[in-house]
Amino acid sequence: MSASFKRLAAIDMGSNSFHLLLAEVSMRGFFPKPRIIARYKHKVRLADGFNKSLELDAAAIARAKDCLKGFSDQLARFKPDALKVVATAALRKATNQHAVLPELEAVLNYPIEVISGEREAALIFSGVCAASEQKGPMLVIDIGGASTEVIAGEPLKAKVLNSLDMGCVVFQNNYFDQQTITRQRFNDAIQQSRSQISGLKQQYQQVGWQHVLGASGTFRAVAEIALAENHAQLTTDWLAVLIERCVAAGHVQKLDFAGLRDDRRAILCGGLAILMGILTELQISHFGVTNGALREGLLAELVATETA
């Protein structure tokens, strides 16, 4: 690699999926911007491995190791000048983190930073700002596997950051066990989502927003369904109809919406319930989707460090 460029790599060990970004950045110019060379994503479903004591089971740990081994092979070929690895809610909450973390670090042969909910929210907002061209106040929502981050602020300046104790994998397991979908199950899950955001409602309203942007899997799944069904806008009313269609299906395996990927079907209802709860409680009628997320925020942080 030329001295005028640096190779950077970022790994986001999420509670549902693990992501690896490979990029290079010019060392010249006042505002260096990374060029992403490759993206890798694997459904690890780490949060699916929790038992009642919030210990991660052997199967979840094995899935994580397999993924990190593949990432390690990619890194060996790419030879980054700088690498950053973070883990989010699933490892943050795991009561056996002290035993699991060294095993995962040994496979990757690199330290893993288990980040706080507030730092996770900040990185998500940074990633959304890096990927989005929106101007003015915005509200960013990221529904992960074991936590949900809600951030309000202006481009590059987050003002309210919160990480909520709910995620699509956890909600799916808690409210839609045995893959059964009913109106009561949805109502209970939506109410739980509303209760988690209700105490923070005033904070967000005081800051305000012009745009609502969703990051990560649940939002992309909703957007892909809407696109396949020729819906021009993402609205709370349309989301309510989609939920009713899930209830009518009655079972996860019967969710056959156009645009719905097989890997998202298993946790769709958990994500929809969280999303509907937040939108309803904050009185949001329209929302959009962004490609930016935590991994892009992590990459932006690496760029700032390496080009300083």
Write the layout of secondary structure elements.
Elements: E1 5-13, E2 17-26, E3 35-43, H1 58-78, E4 82-87, H2 89-93, H3 97-108, E5 113-114, H4 117-131, E6 138-143, E7 148-154, E8 157-164, H5 168-175, H6 183-198, H7 201-207, E9 211-215, H8 217-228, E10 234-235, H9 236-249, H10 262-265, H11 268-281, E11 286-289, H12 294-306
Parallel strand pairs: 1-4, 4-5, 6-9, 9-11
Antiparallel strand pairs: 1-2, 2-3, 6-7, 7-8, 10-11
Task: Outline the structure in words.
The protein has 308 residues and is of the alpha/beta class. The protein folds into two domains: 5-117, ATPase, nucleotide binding domain (Nucleotidyltransferase, domain 5, 2-Layer Sandwich); 133-289, 2-Layer Sandwich (Nucleotidyltransferase, domain 5). Helix content is 46%, strand content 22%. Strands 8-7-6-9-11-10 form a six-stranded mixed sheet, sandwiched between helices. The protein has a five-stranded mixed sheet with strand order 3-2-1-4-5, sandwiched between helices. A hairpin with a 2-residue loop joins strand 7 (148-154) and strand 8 (157-164). It is globular and about 60 Å long. It starts with a strand and ends with a helix. The model has no long low-confidence stretch (mean pLDDT 95).
